[in-house]
Specification:
Belongs to the MsrA Met sulfoxide reductase family. Its EC number is 1.8.4.11. The chain is built from six helices and eight strands. The protein is α+β, with helices and mostly antiparallel strands. It has a single domain, classed as Peptide methionine sulphoxide reductase MsrA (Peptide Methionine Sulfoxide Reductase, Chain A), CATH 3.30.1060.10.
């Protein structure tokens, strides 16, 4: 049975590309979560006034990849020590956050933060936020890396290093490495 992980780690184009390469991941949807405006648009979220984070909702098969493994990949492929930013993307919409769907996911999120802190010299600022209404992003944001993203200079600068880290640090979990 499919389970879901909802994660915010900066630009959703960049996090989506990483998780689409993970064995056991069945779907990745870009969207918005954690804000106060119903049905926000990309433009509204980018303005930083809605309270939403750009996030991904990862559908996964727990028999193939665990929630804990997904969290470890999440922490290894973005900088969880940057408050309200990832690289050049600045604002609360780019915060590092985990939105657990269950008490067990919340416990595992706390454990993952503790594990990740061992690898980062600066304090991790990733928040654990209550599950909230999920709003899928507009269609042109879905599967962005496979299409427009490979012609976008920003994506070309940011995504390949994230994929390299995944494929090096989590080789057994990468579709590209095990193919």
């Amino acid at each position: 049975m499919t389970e879901y992980a909802t994660l915010a780690g900066g630009c959703f184009w960049c996090t989506e590309a990483v998780f689409k390469d993970v064995i056991g991941v069945e779907s990745v949807e870009s969207g918005y979560i954690g804000g106060h405006v119903p049905n926000p648009t990309y433009k509204q979220v980018c303005g930083g006034d809605t309270g939403h984070a750009e996030a991904i909702r990862v559908g996964f098969d727990p028999a193939q990849v665990s929630y804990a493994d997904l969290l470890d990949i999440f922490f290894a492929t973005h900088d969880p020590t940057q408050l309200n930013r990832q690289g050049n993307d600045v604002g609360t919409q780019y915060r590092s956050a985990i939105f657990p769907a269950t008490v067990m996911q919340e416990e595992q999120a706390n454990q993952a933060i503790a594990r990740a802190q061992e690898d980062w010299p600066k304090p991790i600022v990733t928040t654990i936020e209550p599950m909230a209404e999920w709003y899928p992003a507009e269609g042109y944001h879905q599967d962005y890396w496979e299409g427009e993203g490979q012609r976008n200079p920003y994506c070309l600068a940011v995504i390949p290093p994230k994929l390299q880290k995944l494929r090096k640090s989590f080789a057994a979990r990468s579709r590209a490495v095990t193919a």
